[in-house]
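Q: What changes when flavin mononucleotide is included in the input?
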Amino acid sequence: MDIATVDELLTTTRSVRRRLDLTRPVGRDVIVECLRLATQAPTASNAQDWRWLVITDADKRAAIAEIYRSVGAAYLAAAEANASDPQTRRVYRSALGLTETLADVPVHVIPCLAQRFDDGNRLVAASAWASIIPAGWSFLLALRSRGLGSVWTTMHLAKEQEVAEVLGIPATVTQAALFPVAYTIGANFRPATRPPVETITYWNTWEQPVGES
Ligand SMILES: Cc1cc2nc3c(=O)[nH]c(=O)nc-3n(C[C@H](O)[C@H](O)[C@H](O)COP(=O)(O)O)c2cc1C
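A: The predicted holo structure follows.
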């Protein structure tokens, strides 16, 4: 394996909102190819119950964007105003921007799971979410490797049912996220600042992180 390339993919797959190219068409084949890669991800009990809904229809994207905006715009504006550190403020400003551009992002992808687990216990819920989230992340990695980008969003799930009605998603299906997908403007993304892993990693016991011994 080419470790340098793999590490670059893992460290530079960012949330892309402002650098989504809203003018460049995205072909069906590249989406299907990335979804095919994503379905190599694991599922609990090998159920393989991922489902994907790809939305290119402009009217449907507009309807989804309107629902997204109705959940997110006021919340994100307030969050941006109240953010104490510049990095978080930038994230909220960028997220607020997406509420304005979402309808124009050429492809929306909704990763779904073909089950409901609303009343499930922690084991059931953790198993269900982890049966779609790894596949979702693999999809975003595959996009990045091919010059496309996206951002993991959950905002619309506050109105999951409204989006289900727009798209005809049955009541037996759980939506996990919404990925706005487009080619990125440029491909130079950088690793983000993160806490040193030694400060958040414990070894054998939860007494203190390994870096602080
Ligand atoms: C579970 C989850 C939900 C998120 N929901 C949203 C969202 O609704 N809207 C949005 O613009 N970004 C959303 N994000 C993206 C985060 O804001 C982003 O990952 C974070 O700011 C770090 O940026 P980076 O991914 O470029 O490192 C979400 C991320 C995760 C993991």
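Observations recorded in class: The chain has a mean pLDDT of 96.
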